[in-house]
Fold this sequence. Notes:
Growth Hormone, Chain: A; 2 domains; about 0% strand; globular
Amino acid sequence: xxxxxxxxxxxxxxxxxxxxxxxxxxxxxxxxxxxxxxxxxxxxxxxxxxxxxxxxxxxxxxxxxxxxxxxxxxxxxxxxxxxxxxxxxxxxxxxxxxxxxxxxxxxxxxxxxxxxxxxxxxxxxxxxxxxxxxxxxxxxxxxxxxxxxxxxxxxxxxxxxxxxxxxxxxxxxxxxxxxxxxxxxxxxxxxxxxxxxxxxxxxxxxxxxxxxxxxxxxxxxxxxxxxxxxxxxxxxxxxxxxxxxxxxxxxxxxxxxxxxxxxxxxxxxxxxxxxxxxxxxxxxxxxxxxxxxxxxxxxxxxxxxxxxxxxxxxxxxxxxxxxxxxxxxxxxxxxxxxxxxxxxxxxxxxxxxxxxxxxxxxxxxxxxxxxxxxxxxxxxxxxxxxxxxxxxxxxxxxxxxxxxxxxxxx
Length: 410
């Protein structure tokens, strides 16, 4: 790798991180949604529940893997420029169109479907491209790029709140959507003709270690990894989706202090992505995921013990849950590439992220149902703890199966 190539790939990494910072604005949807509910109530007399608006967020998250897979195919053959360009236009355009919404159904299409398709396409490309560019430290680089995605939830909420206060919710949607579309498009264009058929970044194409998606789906170890991702992401997706409500109802905090909990969770989520990515390059992916699963079990135990006057357990539980979730998000791009090779990683990682989408669907759903039926999140913490413990067990099962696969390949 020449000095010029190193400089070039560092510039590409910066552009990919900037794209992810824009894409991570999906984590600020709660700020948009509350303002939009109020706006539609005051201007159109609509009564919209937070749960109904939350389905827009859930739709965007769950639909992402569709274009992660299809866009991954384009990324692996033509390079990331076209994929991120289209994804950025869809994502920013979906947010821009949401500024013209007059109900939840419109937002389900604009933000949920159009924005979600763009999100999956661009995010899948940024992650797989960064891992391919830095195969010698794929864990750290995967952690950095996913951390930028998580960092949005720290940086953007005050900016969005300021825009809403100075204009209104629809205008905020339009401004943010347009600005992010321009930024992502410019970043995509800066990638030039980058592709992995004509660059020496990443391993040689056609390696025996490169396994295409149809072969991957026939390997039992894939399903263990998929289940592990579901279990590892379940707790984080559950808590992130309802962090404010959990804080208010578990600790009896006011809205401003609950907002602080959301920021604390975001910070530990971001830190976990970078730290786990770096650690996984040193001690291995499986040991890092094993540690993350164990931390998640401890987090849920702390949350079960928390309550008014027991703030230590609550804050520790929130911090550990953020670190654990961030660890899984930071490690899995490199973990997937290690297991199935770099050449087809865009498509393979997109398929693997179906596990993330399922966690994003069932985690918030179970938490909401638990609170609706009991008026408490204690059962939700218990279920999340069980999932985390199952994830811990799956790391040992994976180690056994991966060893058998390796011996079979010899």
